[in-house]
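Query form — protein Uracil-DNA glycosylase-like domain-containing protein

QUESTION: What is the three-dimensional structure of this chain?
INPUT:
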Amino acid sequence: MLFVEDQPGCNGCPLRDAHPKANFVPPKLGRGLRLALGMNPGNDEVHHLPTPEPFVGKSGQFLRFGYDKIGVAWPDVTRANVCQCRLSAPKNLFPTDEAAREYLSLPAAKEAIRHCWDTYVVPLLKSKRWGRIDLLGAPALEKGTGKRGILPHPGKACWAGTQLEMLDAPELGAIAVATMHPAYLMRTGEFIPLFYNDLRRSLVPAPESYVLQGTPADYPTDVSTLSLDLETNTANGPTGEIEIRLCGIGTEPYKGACFNWRDDRFRGWLQGAMQQVHDLYVHNGMAFDMPVLEENGIVFPWNFGTLGVPPTGEMRLWDTMLMHHLLWPTLRHDLGSLGRQYTSQPLWKDWKLTDDPEELYCNRDQGNTHAIGVKLRAELSREPKLLNLYRFTQLPLARICLYMSQQGITRDPTRIVKLRERTEAQMFNTEKDLPLDLKSAVVTRNHNVPAPPGTVSAKT
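ANSWER: The structure tokens for Uracil-DNA glycosylase-like domain-containing protein are given below.
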């Protein structure tokens, strides 16, 4: 075993001063230009013979299997950690973990991480012209790129799978890709398929071509295959209360145009185009886009059953969320997660935190939906039974569930109040058009008056 007190580079580190017998595990240099950067060494790494090495325990075995799966030789990978030492604790703790406070204060822990990074990791980053850096875990992502968010959470950016620059080596370009740490994956198992995708993810995004302010000149002539996405004022509530702002359309992946929904010319063109669409790609379209468009007067030539090439005028709907539910039932089904799994595009769902216009965001939603839908459709087509289940059961069932959620009360107990108010308003508006003899009228009713107190009942 190695100890921090014997490492000249650890001089001045508060962790070394507080725990001179903390175990030290140096980086392990590989033959190639791939660098795996984890969090901190575990017990197996500390006791590895003849010398300590990163990722030789269970997490290392998991990582090695991942590299084998994508055709990367283990000896070609350089392995290191954000923190090169292990606290003398019963379980493995990263210095900034809350459970590590009994061993080191938070300011001292942050200073120890900074010292270790500057002393060991930065020189390693600058020692080679790395071809790819795998950031394993949130600490590696945050320290390496300054980004936070490696797990998908609603309303928060998830940077896993996105090509990023290293803060201390920007000259290398966007060659860093973050993913979950193997230890986390072994505990939960939820994101293992995405882990393999992140390791093999291309560093070169597909080229994009989008028109932000579409005009009639940008209407596609051949709409037999179309992808579509809406930007609205809200994603909740009755469809009649949802206002469309933008509509993005495209006829191939990563290309398209965004149109202002208030443009009467576009709405008229879209209604005509829908009668010519054979294959429509949408994300969660059955539950959102399609009902909202129908509420705004767009009529769809639904065709749930035809598996071959449909006759002219019949449309097949390829809903990426529904298809993904069938193929990957245990994974997240939001569009950002699907983009991470099926495309090489950088994260685009956090557009509100950037200077990107909403029109570009709308275009990217539809362009990525098209690319994802084509791949999901191909996967479904390899499983005829799943394809039949999607066409004959899932699409109609999604439609039924939509109507139940719009009219039912089980999902939201307050729904009955809203439903009653809406029904009463509809009754009031309808009654104004009824003939006079059918309208409601106020009728005087005689109620039985109770007997005065003390009255003796005749039945006694």
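ADDITIONAL NOTE: The radius of gyration is 30 Å.
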